[in-house]
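Kindly go through the entry underneath: sequence plus fold tokens. Please state briefly how this chain folds according to its tokens.
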Amino acid sequence: MKKSNIILLVVLVLGLTATYFFHEKRNSEEALDLDASSRLLDFSTLGDIQRFTTQKADIVKEGDKYFLRDSRYSVNGGRLEEVFTILSNIKTRSVIPLAEIQNLGRSAYIPDDLMRIGFYFKDETIFFTLGKKLDFDQTFYLEVERLKNNRSDKVLVIAQDASLDEGVYKSEEEMKKSDAKYRRLQAIFFLGESFYRDLRIFKDRYSSEGIDIKEISFATFRNKKFIVSFENTKTIPVAPLGVKYFADNWISFYRTILALNARGIMTTFKPELLKEPLSAVEITDRENKKEEFTLYRKYGSLSGYFLVSTLEKSLFELDQDQARYFLLNIQDFWEKKIPLPGKVFDLELTQEKSPTLKVKIRDLELFRAESLNKLDPDNVNLKKLIDFLKTESNHLSMVERSDQELIQKVRFSMKIDKTIYNVIYEDSDLIFLDSQRNIMYHYYVGNESPIDLDIKRYWK
């Protein structure tokens, strides 16, 4: 947790309790200002929070980290910070006089003792018990108990969450009486350990603001080793000539993997029970420090996805969607679309024993194909063809000698400006072969081609 947020909480805790003691000293029942009274105290005397408890969670600090006390899971610092930021916005509006409490009874203000959270410091402990919300505004009752030197002091106050209200309301009156922030506090008081458990795979080792990673190498059981370089936004091996990278997605990919949460964590496990390795991933940061991950298919009798790291002592259990980021293919970083020259370009379709269609494509708000020869183009079928060309292929391959038999199965040829593509339909694959760059674009389409393979259908 950031030190600034710990100080904010200390301000909150001492501010609320100080209200009571200052009130007794003045022997007055008038409302006290939290900020004014808190400035009279030295907040540094309490030190760091050593333990934090709710009805369903028990968090302790060991060294500079927080853990769930019983399960020993590490705590997600960002979520703990989020909770304390909300709590630090609680302020006291007034103190309930002791005579009034005795007259109505404590339960009139605090009906449920389970709505209680505790803050444990080195020399004292402070508890908050959340009471009822008042009907006429956003304030609520809060009991503050301070334990120090075997002495317990309590004070009942009217408090308010002073954080910004982001709700949308029909009127000022509706906003004034809103219970949205009070219900948020109720939720915090009952948050369980699953909320605080840190399931992040990368923890805080890499910054999400900039890019701390230099490169990531992937070696899977299916594919050869390749490298994703964040320094020059390229892969190694590089993409074939004319094939672009998903340049806009590099930062998005980086932030996505840093935010990955495991489905579960085993804090103790037996490495010898891990079987069937699926991939090895190595991350190198900008200081050339390395972290290695290995993904397995089995752990003992369990089947699934299990991940270990050289910088973690725990075993991560992943679901299929999380595991796929450790099973990436080099082509996942390439744009596998046929490169179109723009919105307006020339197109020729040729086929044996058939006339050649020559048109100018205008793929604008209103699609139109203009004839460049005597044939009258069919705009519907041509638009279907062009729309298909704008989709991503399943994968790319380079032409090998073994592909010569396949090349003999060309159905028709397509010339886009100066580039010629031979169109092949084979074994549920629709293939566009760029013979100039020896690249084949593979689309898995099943038993029926989504575009017409007889070019006579492209004119009327």
